[in-house]
Amino acid sequence: MTNGMKIALGVTGVFVLAIGGQLLWLHHRNVVDENTQVPRQNQFVTPKMTMDDGVFLHKERPDSLKDERTLIGKKIWVSAGGQMDYYKDISKHVDYAKPVGVLLGAEPLVIEDVFEQKAPANSRATFRIAPGQRQVLLAFTMPKSNDPRTEYAVPVGNFDGGVYNFFTDEIFFYDDPRVLYKHWGPDMWSHIDKHEAVLGMSENQAMMSLGQTITPHGDTVGDRSVTYDNNGHPVTIDFEHNRAVKITP
């Protein structure tokens, strides 16, 4: 991970900032001379597991519009906080030039419909989801908003070359994250619901609260400084032993 490079991390995995692109993993392997003695006890290091690592995240793996339409009528929650612009849904059509806002972490949505629309190549929406021949959008309402009946829409995939590509598994939780991560406790969740940073929170909790668009200053998760874009209001948090010890707005 290169310092200073903006990336987007999921709460328990990796969410590629430009979803239409490809991610290439390069696994580093130490090369040792054949005469070098390697102590056996140092050959394997068991990573320290946390309660977060034990959380099971349900995946739908849709590959057709029929699959995607099974979400209609269901409540889902935003996982990719701070990543996805959403738009006013006007009769199953959106104005890509006029985003309403950005979906925030753990925000509940009720899915009303699934529709397709051709996206302009230079729109912000195509930075997250490749335009393809046309994009696939979810129409939804926001039950916690001031107007829970207003419909909005967000791109979640595309149709290109005769194939549908969906990223709902990466963008959303299908189960309430407050239940999935109930071990975080009600006090921490009260801060996350307000999308604020507090001392003592972990990197995962900070991403749920402030969003996944981050600039890490160091490679050791939990023992480094991280700048969160925070929807255009950057916040830098210093972590020690995966607990926030300093917050700089």
> Structural class given helices, strands, pairing?
alpha+beta
Overall residue-averaged pLDDT value: 86
Strand percentage lies at: 25-35%
What is the radius of gyration?
A: 20 Å
Helix content: 10-25%
N-to-C SSE series? EHEEEEHEEEHEHHHEEEE
Largest sheet: 8 strands, antiparallel
pLDDT < 50 stretches: 1-42
- Straight-line distance between termini: 24 Å
Q: Judging from the principal axes of the Cα atoms, what is the shape?
A: globular
- Number-wise, the strands total 13
| Number of distinct helices | 6
Describe the model.
It contains six helices and 13 strands. With 249 residues, it is α+β, with helices and mostly antiparallel strands. Strands 2, 3, 4, 5, 6, 7, 8 and 9 form an eight-stranded antiparallel beta sheet that branches. β11 and β12 (235-240) form a beta hairpin. α5 (186-193) packs parallel to α6. The longest helix has 8 residues, at 186-193. It is globular, with a radius of gyration of 20 Å. The two termini are 24 Å apart. 33% of the residues are buried.
